[in-house]
Amino acid sequence: MLRRTPWVPRTAVLPLLASLALLSPIAVADPGTETTPTPAATETVTAEPADPDAGADPSEAASAPEAVSPEATPDAGEDDLPTEPGVAAGNDSADEALKKTPSESEASCSMPSGVAAGAANARGTEKDLGRTYYFANTFTSKATSVITYGRANDAVLVGDWNGDGKDTLAVRRGNYYFFSNTLSGGAADVVIIFGRATDKVIVGDWNGDGADTLAVRRGNRYFFLNCLRGGVADVEVTYGRVSDQVLVGDWNGDGKDTLAVRRGKEYYVANSIKGGSADKAFAYGRASDEVYAGDWDGDGKDTLAVRRGNNFHVKNSLTGGSADRLVSYGRATDLVLVGDWDGDGKDTLGLRRPPVVKPAQTQFTFNLAWAGQPNNFFCGPTSGYMILRYKNAGNSKSTGASLTIENVATAMSTRRYGYTSFHDRKFQQGMNAWLGKNVYSTIHTPTPAVVQEKVKQSFSKGYPVAVDEQERRGGPHFNGHSNSTFSHIMVVTGYNVKTDAVQFADPGATLWGGAAQKFWYPSLATFTRNYLQYEYVNDGRQHIGIFTP
Question: What keywords are assigned to this protein (predicted)?
């Protein structure tokens, strides 16, 4: 059977977790001095394109919001669920695992199904690792299948769980394991509880039956299962050093997976699961390399591949020296899986892609064309006209009138009043009548927090906020406005959520020499306090505030 590395923690060191204590490298020959893999010039292959995105559209892939569905929960109560590999419920001694005979272990190797009690609440990691997986069946192809699977914080294992020759995924959430026998979304085929949530887990075909199962590592102790079930481990081995890194593979082609220890750039390979000397040792690559194991050429033996960025240096023998193949694939930020996805006898790559975290947008603008008011009291109709033109509102939904400043003034009763009455909500009424729906409302003397929130919301709603501000003689003014007391309506066309700067389209730029058609005011909060909160005209009527969608 082919063997491949299971999923491993996404750090610079991805090769799996484990060790070899009683390992004695003196039993093997000197590994030599060639430690940096270099591609053979005649056998270099570069995948075109390297990015697996080009293979299949993820939107067309099978998608499931969860790796499992909460149906068919077995009747077993919590007390019936084993909690430790190598330890029966309530037994603190892992030595009991070695006391079981193979026949006793095999007798309980029926395939469970459904979802274990409590599985819906099982948790994965805290990190968002992504839910999109890309699988390629050759080293020269684009991604041949793309799936969306599980949760973004799931830990994932790779193995041939049912012995059909094809590798698929398993999701780990704490000490719950959800096994799927196809590369698709949907419910898990097998669910078990095994070990502790803090255990380090590796995957392999330990007994040569053609199906992959789990092993748990705690320090330099390993607990091996020969079937997908919870309960007592079938084999326990004390092996290597606690600091060792471990790869899993069928190194000699006998159909059984065993361990290889990595110490820096030195590799020590054992062909059986036991203590003692390594069967082979060699040096390869750099101590900082990410390393994966797989049967890259289909000869039944697993060998190594080194990853540097998005370049994979593939070796077809357990020796130092030049790589047999160089493959460029995916992105340097991708998380790598190895497996035989199509059952052709050769391991290839799978990628798990974390989501791209885009920087939060800080500045928003409406691409609204400026218009100038034709007289000194049409600021409201002109501001409304700018908004309606920006929205391609066309003729009035209530009267059929064409979109002109004069007709908007009629809708707002501006000429009849001699101004656009804030107190009588004429801006709001005119805009909603023109649009044929209730979009705008009016807020009198709002707080800075309210104005900031409404302005931010306006960019998602697609309708700009308008302000009816008031300036007074001897007080602060802006954008070249005259030193007098008056009310004035403008449109908010931009906002920076980080600096609080706000942009206005000022229809009054036609009235004051030097005034800008659009300008930035340094702080929306300050603008609100200076011009939108205090009535300077005390005639018993409301004059200032905002018109907001």
Answer: Signal
Q: What is the DSSP letter of 359?
A: P
Same domain, 349 and 373: no
Q: Is the pLDDT of residue 259 over 50?
A: yes
Tell me the per-residue pLDDT of 169-222, one tens digit each, with 9 for 90 and over.
Answer: 999 999 999 999 999 878 899 999 999 999 999 999 999 999 999 999 998 899
> Does residue 178 share a domain with residue 89?
yes
Question: Comparing 72-81, 83-92, 257-266, 282-291, which segment has the lowest mean pLDDT?
Answer: 72-81
Where are any strands of DSSP class E within 111-188?
A: 132-135, 145-148, 155-159, 168-173, 176-179
Distances in whole angstroms, Cα of residue 513 to Cα of each of 373, 507, 517: 14, 13, 11
Do 311 and 432 belong to one domain? no
Type of residue found at 482: S
Of the chain, the end-to-end C-alpha distance in Å amounts to 65
pTM of the predicted protein model: 0.54
HSE, side-chain direction, 13 A CA sphere, residue 405: 15
CA atoms 374, 377, 383, 384: torsion sign = negative
Specify the pLDDT at position 127: 63
d(CA 500, CA 491): 16
- Residue 293 inside a domain? The answer is yes
pLDDT by residue (tens digit) across 475-521? 999 999 999 999 999 999 999 999 999 999 999 999 988 899 999 99
Euclidean distance between CA atoms 423 and 545, whole angstroms: 10
Q: What is the DSSP letter of 187?
A: -
Classify residue 371: in a domain, yes or no.
Answer: yes
In a domain, residue 7? The reply is no
Asked if 140 and 197 sit in the same domain, the reply is: yes
How many angstroms separate the CA atoms of 76 and 112, rounded?
12
487: domain range?
363-548
Query: Does 506 lie in the same domain as 374?
Result: yes
Alpha-carbon gap, residue 77 to 74, rounded angstroms:
8
Whether residue 33 is predicted with pLDDT greater than 50 in this model: the reply is no
